[in-house]
Amino acid sequence: MTQSVNHHPSISLLELYCDGSLNAEVALLVATHLDYCPHCQQLRHDIETDLGAQLAASTPASQDLHSADWLEMLNSIVATPQLPRTAASPAQSAEQLIQIGSYQFELPRSLRRVASKRSKWLSMGGIATARLPSGEPHHASLLFIDKHTDVPLHTHQGLEMTLVLAGEMVDENGHYVPGDLIINSPDDTHKPRNISDEPCLCLSVLSAPLQFKEGLTRWLNPLQRFFY
Ligand SMILES: [Zn+2]
């Protein structure tokens, strides 16, 4: 059974995405959420229509003569249906699947190219991470949580943004399925857990290292380096 997405980006985050002011890592997270979420795809369409109208209204007077053309062009861009998907080339098919141990996951479209440039997987217990190309201070990575596995309790020095790509997980605040976006600030302490019989794959964006709250003290620093 497909479960519907319940945790969405805020309207202000979608607005920043639409006007291109997000950094690349957070924009990737929002774009990937959109792959899963018809609700936010509609909101993006509405925001882009508004932005287009604002842009048209602020066009300098010298261009007024062309404003009818300008509006017509904007309307046609907004109204143009997306091109149908063409048959995937072998390179594309390789990008759309990801293998972790004995598990295979299909990646959403927005993530395929960047995920193909991931660094090698590092694993600890039932958890594995692979860094994606990203710029300071944001770190983007794929995070794999095996079935019946907990991520140690931690808090955040910056923002932690997690998008579930496959499987499901829970923490103190809810239950998350593919497409759900979870944003934790420095005030939040949580312990993500995969309590299901299926493995979970997430996209994670951190703006600062996590701070772990449990486990043997000598393991806390390596754990921190593992995640960031
Ligand atoms: Zn959404």
What does this structure look like?
- With 228 residues, the protein is α+β, with helices and mostly antiparallel strands.
- It has 2 domains: 11-79, no CATH class; 97-227, Sandwich (Jelly Rolls), CATH 2.60.120.10.
- It is built from 7 helices and 15 strands.
- The strands form 5 sheets. It has a 6-stranded antiparallel sheet with strand order 3-4-5-14-8-11, with helices on one face. A 3-stranded antiparallel sheet has the order 12-7-15. Strands 1-2 form a two-stranded antiparallel sheet.
- It starts with 10 loop residues before the first helix and ends with a helix.
- The protein binds zinc ion.
- Residues 5, 8, 33, 37, 39-40 line the site of zinc ion (ZN).
